Amino acid sequence: MHVDHLTFAVGSAGLKSESDRLGTLLGERFRDGGFHPRFGTRNHILPLADERYLEVVEVLEHPAAEKAPFGQAVRARSETGGGWLGWVVSVDDLAPYEKRLEREAVRGSRHFPDGRLLEWEQIGVKGLISDPQLPYFIKWESDPTVLPSALHGDIHLDRLEIAGTRSRVEDWLGIDLGEVFDGVKLKFSSEYGQPGLLSATFATPRGKVKI
User: Fold this and answer.
1) Residue 175 three-state SS
2) Ramachandran category for residue 195: left, alpha or beta (phi over 0 → left; psi -120 to 50 → alpha)
3) Residue with more model confidence, 105 or 149
């Protein structure tokens, strides 16, 4: 189980402005990630170290966005001003989660600006919608050469601060979480009324940056 990526939903500024703002804070430039035809969204990505990445995502006026839970989740977060949508873990097998959640994983894809196609399966976005402290699960299907992890990054994800309870996330993941999970420090805060991802701290060549 791997902390794969973080998702940041844009606010009223739009995808380019939000990506430029975060890129300035982190000292790196985001790349155009392309379009998610099954979800009605598009993203910009920033490759990180340790086979992770950060995505900034925007919902489009597209029929898929009205039907797909991911499109619905992005729209809802954007309409409240944008910000952290959630975190995502990658696994080698989604079958245990399909059995536990009593539904099948859905296919996802992203068309790169150069025409290449990235494909995966995912499950758990509905859990994220109902309880935003929870990550969802992804299983990559494409050749490793086109995965985001194939891109090099010098920025490390250092820490996540989550509004919620450790036991709830442990039950969802099916594992016991230590203070450090897959190389990422985890802090849970119960003082906030709304659960969700509060902040992420990154170790950059210029020092630590908290967003």
Assistant:
1) coil
2) beta
3) 105
